[in-house]
Fold:
Amino acid sequence: MNTSSYSAFSLEPFPVVTAGDDLASLISRTLAEQHLTFEDGDIVVVASKVVSISEKRYVDLASVSVSPQARSLAQQTGKPEGLVQLILDESLDHFLATPSGPIIARHRLGYQLTSAGVDRADDGGAWLLPADPDASARTLRDALKATTGASIAVVIADSDGRADRRGATVLSIGTAGIAPLRITSHTGPDGSQKRQEETFTDLVAAAAGILLGQRGRGAPVAVLRGIEFSAGDEGVASMLHARPAE
Structure:
């Protein structure tokens, strides 16, 4: 499915999200306050941080028991010991992009992420990823459809670094209503059929990331309109090489 153009806007100012908040209600309320509406086919991209906050995924670093391995890795990377322990707890394996980090980890859900997606808080704590990002996306999609009446898709996006370069990009960790892979085929010069898979919801997340920003813009929700996509609830888990650990 081809897209020749699309538009995008962020929902801001957006209220501060606190633990236990009904995120779908906040999105619907902000949409109404800005005299905006969802349209069928809109893709609502939500920063994983606010999903984690609403789902109470906070951990106090002072409560974390630190292992010798975490202590050694903390000394090597300069990260707090409790934070490193959480990274190890949330991951199946890891490696350092450089001798001093960052830590690139394979999350127990199957994602490869910087710091296993653990996000340090300013008050001596940290936020873990949503327990099941695909389920979180489906819950948001269903609630937003119920309140707005629009047939939308939801992508939960997380900022992430790459082992081969500096800086952060944005990728999808949870989806609902949109197939995460775009599959195309074409005939090669020799007449053979070539099949290509694109991580389509990562492209969507990156496009939204231009609006969401990475440094406290206060815009945790963006809406992309006019993008052609295939509907589906397979979720990001369906395109991972390593499926989520049971």
User: Anything to note?
Assistant: Residues 59-127 form a domain with the CofE-like fold fold (CATH 3.90.1660.10). The helical segments are 23-33, 48-54, 68-77, 81-90, 133-148, 200-212.
